[in-house]
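Holo prediction. Input below; ligand is alpha-D-glucose-1-phosphate-6-vanadate.
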Amino acid sequence: MSKIKFGTSGWRGIIAEDFTFENVRIVTQAIADYLKDTKESEKGVVVGYDSRFLGERFAREAVSILLGNGIKSYLTKGPTPTPVISLEILRRKAGGAINFTASHNPPEYNGLKFSSSWGGPALPQATREVEILANKMLEKGTAYCRVPLEEAIDNGLCEEIESHEFYMQALEEKIDMSSIRKAGLKIAADLLYGAGIGYLDKAFESAGCEIKVLHNRYDPWFGGKAPDPSEKNLAELAQVVKSGGYNLGLAVDGDADRFGVIDADGRYIEPNYIIALLLDYLVRVKGLRGGAARSIATTHLIDAVAEKHNINVYETPVGFKYIGELIKEDKIIIGGEESAGLSIKGHVPEKDGILACLLVAEMVAVEGKTIGGLLEDLYKSVGRFVSARENIEIDVSAMGNLSVKMKEPPTLFAGFAVNNMRTAEDGGIKIFLAGGSWLLMRGSGTEPLVRLYGEARSKENLERIMKAGRDFITG
Ligand code: VG1
Ligand code: CO
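Structure of the complex:
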């Protein structure tokens, strides 16, 4: 049996292969043991799930194990977005959360995200402990405690919770709904059959927008695609926006922590640009003060915007947990990842795709311009940045660590002089090139893929860099 491993965001596995009821019981028992060790167990645990296959059944099984350990659970009613679960941890002052989701992964996956009492994804020191405990149980035979769910409900040790209203109030505190209302925006939204249903659509309805919604029914098969709001998966939304004269197309991933944005002309806008535009908007228009955070893989356009406003930039490894910590410590106005995750000052220390979509609508409403127009304005003040991200279907564990493949920094890469090279915490390699370009290669911690990221100041240079990166990885 394969070992339990927590990656960039939780433990994920193919349903019935690795992601089995038995393994869910073992991992939940390991989490219960960890919470008892850290005394967080007394505060109870939020248990939630998205719209994936057997999500609710897995969640109920986790509740049974928690009760077997004398731990109270707050079980969500229906599929619930990851940011909403984060807010519930804070609202209930819980010791953490267990959230059944494999986020943007293909439909054959399910997963378990473990969050801490501060509301953000558990940090590596916690998930390492859980991994050790779970793998010990796998080796030595299982020893979990389990009590049937009905008993848990009867004993008052499982409370079913309703989250919509509380979350909507939290959003209304952060978003200028009246400006969205006044602008009379026409919005098309793709809910990708996921946990965003009843959240993203409702938020725009309550902001008084005319909204057209796609894929707003739960489907564990996600229409046969991964519930990832990527350019490819949002082609239908882009078509709707263009032909229907919508101001914006907006989407969230399967657990609604990621966002996707289509401009009025049907163009998909990379999350990198959205994060940079929102940073500029939050400082220039809303007057927020504080730093900004981005992951190592995210655009340096953020640094250019930060420099313009004279604010500090924090660079983190890939994984929102690190940005979540900075939100918790109130060090930043906005923190984001190029994979379409962001959160802002005073909000949950977890990425929130719903908040991101609303902020984009607010920015378009207040500024009275398209995203493309806003981006051109930004380029005028800080210069042009072009970035790209590619997935290469190679299992990094099969090829050995990338840094083994490139021990020494080359003097030239893609024909550019190499200024610097560094190895990231997760074994990825970032190479800085003359002229302000860079590339990053790393093994994904959620899927068996290698990710290649690049950025340059022109499209031609970016293409050269990406080609050299691809050749290096596959060569
Ligand atoms: C990917 C993204 C990362 C994100 C993580 C979880 O990780 O690159 O930015 O935080 O997914 O996203 P990786 O290791 O596969 O590149 V999600 O929406 O699962 O919570
Ligand atoms: Co997600």
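The chain has three domains: 6-163, 177-382, 386-474. That is the main takeaway for now.
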